[in-house]
Amino acid sequence: MLAINQINQQRLWKTIKELSEIGSGTNIAEEGVTRLSLSLEDLEARHYVISLMEEAGLDVRVDEVGNIIGKLEGTDPNAPIVMTGSHVDTVLQGGVFDGTLGVLGAIEAVRSIKESGIQLTHSIEVVSFTDEEGTRFGTGYIGSKAMTGYLDEATLSLTDANGITYAEALHQAGFDPTLYKQAIRKPEEIKAYVEMHIEQGKVLEENELAVGVVTNIQGPVWVEVTLNSHPDHAGATPMNMRRDASLAMAEVMLEVERIATKYQGVGTVGKLKVEPGGVNIIPGKAIFSIDLRHGDIELRTKMVNEVTASIEEISKKRLIEPVIELKKSVDPAVCSSTIVDLLEESCKELDIPTMKLPCGAGHDSLMMTKITEMGMIFVRSKDGISHNPKEWTEKEDCVKGTHVLLQALRKLAK
Ligand SMILES: [Zn+2]
User: What CATH number is associated with residue 359?
Assistant: First the structure.
């Protein structure tokens, strides 16, 4: 068993507070934090992260797509790197802890290791990834996609609400997007990637646990469905002559619930619109999103196929023409069983009770798993709230999660 290292709790909490002040405006409790990727606020947050890493004594570099990488040199320069990190960009009016905890906790953990004078064989890199959230350009994991070789020209041509392309935004921020392939890391360079993140759900809270060990990440499939029929007068059209697009949508929504429950996955219709949208007009068009997730890719494929079949069947029955468009598909990922064991062992050594749980949200770890062994530490979220100004994680929980991360990094880099 390793001797226990303590982090500097006050310092960790101070950095979380300082970073929360960037992009938070005057009323953080109401407005939360907004640091859309490569915005002025995000750039200021990046400067803050760089200065913290430098203060911690790490070698800092920023790669071609803006990933900030702080390195604690190990004794063997040829040994593969142990990587940890997360992101500091946020959604619109997001919370203080999403992503931030994984970056600042990692800096604090590595700083504590350095200060204690412990020599580790493997180098440790703390990464603050560019644009995890995807709010500004509609697609996320940009930094981790670039690092794992999954970024492409099409993504760099995406535009934000002001018509600025990704490539232009990177260029304005001082990066050279034409060199994005230079950000690729080879699998043999990296030993493992461990990310600490707030849970963004209620499972840990329900179980009265501060820290959890993630077993797998449910990859989302996003589909946009348009049901086309014909708008008719609400008074003049008898019930048996209608082709009501909104009723077809309602039937599909119930099917999404039934199918997700059947496969023990999750399914959500979160965005919906009917047209023309009059009190006295039978809807002639319904447009809605479907988000389907499962930890097992085969079961998720079955969910997607059954939902698609039900859309077709319901449309046929109601004389409606459906258009089904795949918007996003991210493969689910299984965490490395070695890292799961190592995290559980670390919790035990630190006397922090824990549990294993699946992860429902997407993270950079989803991409990193394509090139290395991956694991995740979850830290309790108050009321399960996230992507919201009310997002909260207690200081003691942040400290516990960071202690687990530190212990795990020491074991991995030994
Ligand atoms: Zn996040």
Answer: 3.40.630.10
pLDDT band at 67 (very low <50, low <70, confident <90, very high): very high
178 to 64, 137, 158, 164, 170: CA distances (angstroms):
9, 18, 15, 16, 10
Residues 324 and 195 in one domain: no
The pTM (predicted TM-score) of the whole model is 0.86
* Spatial separation of the C-alpha atoms in residues 347 and 336, rounded to whole Å: 17
121 residue type, one letter = T
In angstroms, what is the span from residue 344 Cα to ligand 1's centroid? Answer: 22
Taken in order 385, 387, 393, 397, the sign of the CA dihedral is positive
pLDDT digits (tens, 9 = 90+) for 88-119: 999 999 999 999 999 999 999 999 999 999 99
- pLDDT per residue as tens digits for the range 218-257: 888 999 999 999 999 999 999 999 999 999 999 999 999 9
316 CA from centroid of ligand 1 (Å): 40
Question: Same domain for 85 and 205?
Answer: yes
Ligand 1 centre from 240 Cα, in Å? 49
- How many angstroms does the Cα of residue 360 sit away from the middle of ligand 1? 12
Of 310, 329, 348, the position where a domain reaches its end is 329
Q: Is residue 355 part of a domain?
A: yes
